[in-house]
Design brief:
Length: 180
């Protein structure tokens, strides 16, 4: 899914914002969940993006770890960008290795999409609004007002991560998939 998003996302207007066919999404999800082989290259990239966000939402405790939720939310309250980046890197060290590897690929994809935002209309802010709720959620449910405020903070964090991904994860994240 990430490889397809890397290949097609930068040239797809509204990637992660638009949904694909709900029927196709449901059928593909059932096939994937049952272990049936699926050729996603034959499907709409919007369905693939929806499937990927669904995959992220189903990671137990979230990819950024709900246990670290308060620390993630407070990162942007810290001093200058350097201090924020160092805090983020320290938080990343507390994540399981599999989460870190997946995050590198995710932000590699988001970075190449954001670099072509004039074409696809998905700048770092727009991408963060679409993807942030799939990356982190609080460990316990709360009121709609608190949840809305939380989503705004996480979206700001994800925007910062996209804009600074090379400094956070290393410049090699831009070439994890090779050339487009």
């Amino acid at each position: 899914m990430l490889s397809l998003l890397y290949q097609e996302g930068p040239s797809t207007k509204g990637i992660f914002r638009r949904s694909g066919s709900a029927k196709t999404f449901k059928e593909l999800k059932e096939k994937l969940d049952s272990g049936t082989e699926v050729d996603l290259a034959r499907e709409s990239i919007f369905v693939t993006a929806s499937l990927f966000k669904d995959f992220l939402r189903n990671i137990p405790g979230s990819i950024l770890s709900s246990q670290l939720c308060d620390k993630w939310v407070s990162v942007l309250d810290q001093g200058n960008n350097e201090e924020k980046i160092k805090s983020i890197q320290r938080l990343i060290e507390h994540l399981p290795r599999a989460n870190v590897v997946l995050l590198r690929y995710i932000f590699g994809v988001l970075h190449v999409i954001e670099m072509r935002s004039e074409e696809n209309q998905m700048n770092a802010f727009n991408l963060s609004v679409c993807i942030a709720p799939s990356l982190l959620w609080p460990p316990v449910s709360s009121t709609p007002d608190i949840e809305s405020e939380f989503i705004k903070k996480i979206s700001s964090l994800v925007q910062f991560l996209i804009e600074n991904c090379c400094r956070i994860f290393g410049d090699e994240i831009t070439s994890l998939f090779g050339e487009i």
